[in-house]
Amino acid sequence: MTARLLVNVALNGLTLAALYFIVASGFSIVFGLLRTVNMAHGALYLLGAYIGYDVAAAHGWWWGVLAAAVAVGLLGAAMQKWLLDRMQGQDLRQALVTIGLSIVLGDLLLARYGGLTYQFEPPDALYGSVPLPAGLGGYPTFRLFLIGVALAIGLALWLLMYRTRLGMAIRAGVDDRAMLSAMGFNVPRLFILVFALGAAMAGLAGVIGGSALSVAPGEDARYLMSSLVVVIVGGMGSLGGAALGALLVAFAEQIGLVLFPHYAILLTFVIMIAVLAVRPRGLLGRA
């Protein structure tokens, strides 16, 4: 490997890990904190990407980001309130209902947008490339921006969950819902807020990921699978685990594409199997 190839693989791994973290962080807080099996998370990602594309084409990229996060967040709140809350603790029913919802959403989006691939146009400030030192060429500005977005989201979620009264109530509601209700907290409303936040993260990731790569049918299944693997490797409900899992999975994919491109996906599942054999709850998971 040349030095330039090594740097590109490392940067591609970091940017892919940033994207996986943004997608998986919403899945992790819903799956890990609420114990809700949301198999429609990938469909929410794709819905956010298409909503963001339409709004960005009419009003600009930043408005597309905002519209995708708000619209998908509201849909997530409706899902939790009218569908999933009444199935709390019934993992199989939740999985089947959300799988059905993802199929319906996917078909509706396919009917509306067809099988074409769409590409966002980010703001002018995020176009172009940043020169790398030592004559190693350049790297796309937007991908470096993606790393910054992932760091900002990770810090904001950590502060929300571990440094605010709302986060304390959410974590307490997961461990003892009846006691928190007895103390006067509206636990169903808290859980709706958490699910809406997780869905909004998926919608936001749809625009960010669609801008870094593209938007096309089938992306929902890809990012649902990536989120599942990241959460399983890192540990349910752990933001640090989601970040660590995203790094491991993304670097495994990038290194695999360089060394054995036809079998790169196998390396991801080898990592998952190895982690589960040693730590069944994930690297940073808890009982």
Automatic annotation (TrEMBL):
GO cellular component: plasma membrane
Matching Pfam families: BPD_transp_2
Keywords: Amino-acid transport, Cell membrane, Membrane, Transmembrane, Transmembrane helix, Transport
Membrane topology label: Multi-pass membrane protein
Family annotation (InterPro entries): ABC_transp_permease, BCAA_transport_permease
UniProt subcellular location: Cell membrane
GO biological process: amino acid transport
Top-rank taxon: Bacteria
GO function term, MF aspect, one: transmembrane transporter activity
CDD domains: TM_PBP1_LivH_like (cd06582)
Transmembrane segments: 6-30, 61-83, 95-114, 142-161, 190-216, 228-251, 258-278
Family: Belongs to the binding-protein-dependent transport system permease family. LivHM subfamily.
Name of the protein this chain belongs to: High-affinity branched-chain amino acid transport system permease protein LivH
Lineage, top ranks: Bacteria, Pseudomonadati, Pseudomonadota, Betaproteobacteria, Burkholderiales
